[in-house]
């Protein structure tokens, strides 16, 4: 992380400077190619290196713009790697209740009050494609019927 921040600062200078030191930028990008463990950052740096080397003693404006764009790409990758992540990392997804699983099987929304008619309508719609006579599997059809039963009689089934 510390190395990413130093590379970020070192590459911001030539990107924002009017007359950049492309040799120094090339040296930093070559260091990134050698030392980076992230594949995406290494690839971005490898693609930027030839353009930066070409820009060293070149007064052509298009080469300078290309070099600035390549440094911008490398900086974007560095920023993505060094930006703080929000939320719980490596957390297991929350287990769904049996009712929520049944709603997903039937294709029903999770947070809406359902009537028996809504449940039966969703069951008939899903059963058309899952019935064994119409190319579906027996297990999927049995799961579908169980999901309907769980939603129609919610207190009769325990969470598994």
UniProtKB/TrEMBL annotation:
InterPro entries in alphabetical order: DnaJ_domain (IPR001623), J_dom_sf (IPR036869)
Domain J, first and last residues per copy: 101-160
CDD domains xref list: DnaJ (cd06257)
Name by which UniProt lists this protein: J domain-containing protein
Natural source organism: Bradyrhizobium daqingense
